[in-house]
Specification:
The structure holds two protein chains of two kinds. In chain A, about 30% of the residues lie in helices and about 25% in strands. By secondary structure, chain A is of the alpha+beta class. Chain B folds into two domains: about 80 residues, Beta-grasp domain (Ubiquitin-like (UB roll), Roll); about 70 residues, [2Fe-2S]-binding domain (DNA polymerase, domain 1, Orthogonal Bundle), CATH 1.10.150.120. The chains are: A alpha+beta, B alpha+beta.
Chain lengths: ~750, ~170
């Protein structure tokens, strides 16, 4: 296979064969000699003081391993950004399902009964469960003011625009929590050895996050903590931070017992205790001229972070920066705020704050269109960002992006005008009303602002004794295709067949820290580094004369073997270097927020049945510009999967809360879309010749989560004329609004 | 090693036999053991996964006497004398089946955790309807949840495998 055929070609997924034969080993498929099973005793109240812990005398406690906060050798926290979240509650609890005590036993069947046999008495304290209660400070549960983080973006002079406006358009939009619902629940195995320290194998996204957390918790030096990612059955952000907690629990049990300990959550525990998408509230107040041009506006974006800070500050950052959408704002003030409530901490979920603030932006654009008297198409077209203009953080758009063209193509692909005309007539008769909705949006690729600079990721590419090449990164595969695409990049850079390149298992003892697998950064940022490191291998061999400038794979393998025989190893490292002239001000939140953006226009066709009040998506067009598509099948799969999750976010997936606890933590009552629920998801790419990352690819993973919810709700309003400003939107919500006469 | 045989535990009390992937197996189990646990722990056939434990997600799907079942809902005793097929029995030696190849080529497997159940479900569908319509595929796979793909590439895989069926007939 010639190398130039590798990029842009849908080569077989590296670990695909193991996945289709059932040979792939996930964490629950692994057992170790003498292994114990661990379980977690959790808080039954939202907020309170632990008065007493007693034990059911019927249970033979001396056969169990028991761990409390007192057994923690290091610091009782899950080290992440701040260190406010305890690994095990000590004295007080701040949310339902907060871990208090750990148990392990060789017989997993005895564990559930034992968990119920730990009796905890609490003195309950008043708790808060909404953004509004948190803001009102009916109770102060975190810091001085229940506020984890605030951001302020200011551009131009917003205060001067109101008098010049022909229209001032206001709106408030909310989004609910959403469960990541990877089909493989969280799980880890930990083993402890006095010499080697602690080793954790797990289903996780970020080996070095877990590594850092275990060092602090277990009070061990870096070399005595080893974290290995095993095959991971979906993550979507849900295995970004919580695996540090589970790994910590298993590690504590392993250290105390001296035996390997496996902890696997069941679905109920996973859903009720681990993170979800942050619920949000966004307020828009926009000054618009009579031709529909946005003159300026204020946006207040607030998210509910739950009881501890965890990742809320960074989720808030992304949501705040994306709040203005793909539009030009000459003047804008955006306030972002993450507040505390007594719910389990909310965390990372594909999109990371952007789906929330973009839902508001794209619903608000439809409202502006109505007020001004323009179509949903035209109001967007008139306000799209153009090359040379600046975003809300005053980042200049340097790439040749043409959003008007993207919109036109999406309209054509969805047959928008003809269908709308047809529906306008057809909707008169019968209970089924149809409509079309648009969402235009952008998604920043890579860490925000100075994030990549701080991460300073490193990758290695190594020539092996057999003449093959190995890519060493801590970037993980959990379905997206990391293994495959990074191998494609290395193969292309080395002029080798794809089959000659493999990827090492992410193991902190073996691979350098290429950063976490989050933020749509793997292909663009890590991929670029893999390319440089691969080129380094080639240059080494050419420079020392063992390889000609052009070579066959056989010649490469021979040169590789020869080099290793002479020098011991053939290894090339690449470290992230921030591009020159990139300006970002962390204080003022101004400058180059992202290396680049992916752009998209999505169009939903929806049918609302007014006899059952159910809404159904009938057709979905997802058109995006993501730079160069390196692997068409994987890229399409990313988009279709993200759209499906977005449809769930809009119409199906409602977390029912009671006193901070999820009440529907099962797959029987928290409903994600099945194969029978989804419309044809038609995925299209527009390559506009922008060059970014490895071979021109931008980030792709999170983008498709941003557009479906607003496109669908816009389509529902188009169909039945009732305004909805919240997701999820279940039949009962539509019923209620329609019965109430639904304002327009 | 098996969960049930680890140190201070006794072995199961009932003995049952069944055929798995063409091989006769006899295991000692506890009366209420789930078929899923017996497959995974006693026979080390870990291809079937537990996603929800209540028959909703289908990642534990196996074929029992030709019927698609959620092995997390089947008491192992009920499988006595039955003929079972798990994902480990779908390939012929090292040769992938047409359905497995189609899943690989079409992108039907992403994280892979639903894949064993999904492939068995798809094989079951084609055994009943060798050339299903798209609507029949959508309905036929509705008992198997996938969070990664949005199902579109799984449908493509089933269509591709079915096309192979149609080709074989002609």
């Amino acid at each position: 296979m010639a190398a130039e055929n590798i990029i842009g070609k849908s080569v077989p997924r590296k670990e695909g064969r193991d996945k289709v034969t059932g040979a792939a080993r996930y964490i629950d498929d692994i057992a170790m000699p003498g292994m114990l099973y661990g379980a977690t005793v959790r808080s039954q109240v939202a907020r309170g003081v632990i008065k007493q812990i007693s034990f059911d005398p019927q249970i033979e406690w001396d056969t169990f391993v028991l761990v409390t906060a007192k057994d923690i050798p290091g610091k009782n926290c899950i080290a992440l950004i701040g260190d406010d979240q305890p690994c095990l509650a000590e004295g007080k609890v701040n949310h339902p399902e907060e871990p208090i005590l750990l148990l392990a036993h060789s017989n997993p069947h005895l564990l559930r009964k034992a968990v119920d046999g730990v009796w905890i008495e609490y003195e309950s304290l008043p708790a808060i469960f909404s953004i509004e209660d948190s803001e009102r400070r009916t109770q102060t549960i975190w810091g001085d003011d229940n506020t984890f983080k605030t951001f302020l973006i200011e551009k131009g002079d917003v205060d001067s625009v109101w008098t010049k406006a022909d229209h001032i358009v206001e709106g408030e939009y909310t989004t609910g929590a959403q469960e990541q619902l990877y089909i493989e629940n969280n799980g880890v195995i930990a083993a402890f050895d006095r010499e080697q320290g602690i080793t954790v194998w797990g289903s996780l996204q970020c080996p070095y996050y877990v590594h850092k957390a275990l060092m602090a918790l277990c009070n061990l030096p870096a070399e005595k903590v080893r974290v290995v990612q095993v095959e991971t059955g979906g993550a979507f952000g849900g295995k970004e931070d919580y695996p540090s907690m589970i790994a910590g629990h298993a590690a504590l049990l392993a250290m105390k017992s001296g035996r390997p300990v496996k902890i696997i959550y069941d679905r109920l525990e996973d859903m009720t205790a681990t993170t979800k998408r942050h619920p949000s509230r966004t307020r828009h107040r926009t000054a618009v001229s009579k031709d529909g041009t946005i003159l300026g506006g204020e946006i207040d974006f607030t998210i509910d972070g739950g009881a501890y800070a965890t990742l809320s500050s960074v989720v808030l950052s992304r949501g705040t920066i994306h709040a203005g959408g793909p539009y030009y704002w000459p003047n804008v003030r955006i306030r972002g705020k993450a507040v505390a409530t007594n719910a389990p901490p909310h965390g990372a979920f594909r999109g990371f704050g952007a789906p929330q603030s973009l839902f508001a932006m794209e619903r608000h654009m439809d409202r502006i269109a109505q007020v001004v008297g323009l179509s949903a198409v035209e109001v967007r077209r008139r306000n799209f960002l153009k090359p040379g203009q600046t975003t809300t953080t005053e980042q200049t758009i340097r790439e040749e992006i043409d959003l008007g063209k993207l919109l036109d193509r999406a309209l054509e692909l969805s047959d928008y005008d003809a269908k709308r005309a047809r529906f306008a007539q057809g909707n008169e008769a019968g209970p089924v009303k149809k409509g079309m909705g648009i969402a235009a949006f952008l998604h920043g690729a890579g860490f925000t602002g100075s994030g990549e600079r701080y991460l300073a990721s490193v990758v290695a590419v190594e020539g092996c004794v057999d003449g093959s090449v190995s890519v060493l990164v801590s970037s993980t595969e959990f379905g997206q295709g990391t293994n495959t695409v990074l191998c494609q990049i290395a193969a292309e850079a080395l002029d080798l067949p794809y089959e000659d390149v493999r990827i090492a298992q992410p193991d902190t003892n073996q691979v350098p820290n290429s950063g976490p697998t989050v933020a749509s950064r793997t292909v663009m940022v890590v991929g670029s580094l893999v390319r440089s490191a691969a080129v380094g291998i080639k240059q080494t061999l050419i420079a020392n004369g063992s390889l000609g400038v052009s070579y066959s794979p056989e010649e490469f393998r021979a040169a590789c073997r020869r080099h290793i025989a002479e020098h011991g190893q053939l290894r090339s490292l690449a470290r992230y270097e921030p591009p020159e002239g990139v300006f970002w001000d962390d204080q003022k939140y101004r400058g180059e927020a992202y290396a680049t953006f992916a752009w998209a226009v999505y169009i939903a066709q929806v049918a609302v049945d007014l006899s059952t009040y159910s809404a159904r998506v009938e057709d979905f067009v997802a058109l995006q510009e993501v730079g160069r598509v390196l692997h068409p099948v994987l890229a399409k799969g990313q988009i279709a999967g993200g759209v499906a999750q977005g449809i769930g976010f809009a119409l199906y997936e409602k977390v029912v809360w009671q006193n901070g606890r999820m009440q529907n933590g099962q797959m029987t009552n928290y409903i994600m879309p099945t194969s029978a629920d989804l419309p044809p998801i038609r995925v299209f790419f527009e390559e506009m010749g922008n060059v970014h990352g490895a071979y021109g690819a931008k980030g792709i993973g999170e983008l498709p989560m941003d557009g479906p919810a607003p496109a669908i709700v816009n389509a529902i309003e188009d169909a039945i004329g009732t305004r909805f400003d919240s997701v999820p939107l279940l039949p009962e919500d539509i019923f209620e609004a329609v019965c109430a006469g639904g304002e327009r | 090693m098996s969960r049930y045989s680890s140190d201070n535990q006794a072995h199961g009390t009932c003995e049952i036999s069944f055929t798995v992937n063409g091989k006769q197996e006899t295991v000692r189990i506890f009366p209420m053991a789930r078929l899923l646990d017996v497959l995974r722990q006693e026979l080390e056939l870990t291809g079937a996964k537990e996603g929800c434990g209540e028959g909703e997600c289908g990642s534990c799907s196996v074929l029992m006497d030709g019927k698609l079942v959620n092995s997390c809902l089947i008491p192992a005793l009920q499988a006595a004398g039955a003929s079972l097929t798990t994902i480990e029995g779908i390939a012929e030696g090292t040769q992938l089946s047409a359905m497995q190849t189609a899943f690989l080529e079409c992108g039907g497997a992403q994280c892979g955790i639903c894949t064993p159940g999904m492939i068995l479900s798809a094989c079951h569908l084609l055994s009943k309807k060798p050339e299903p319509s798209l609507e029949e595929i959508r309905e036929g796979l509705a008992g198997n949840l996938c969070r990664c793909t949005g199902y579109m590439q799984i449908f493509e895989a089933v269509v591709q495998a079915a096309r192979g069926n149609a080709g074989a007939k002609r």
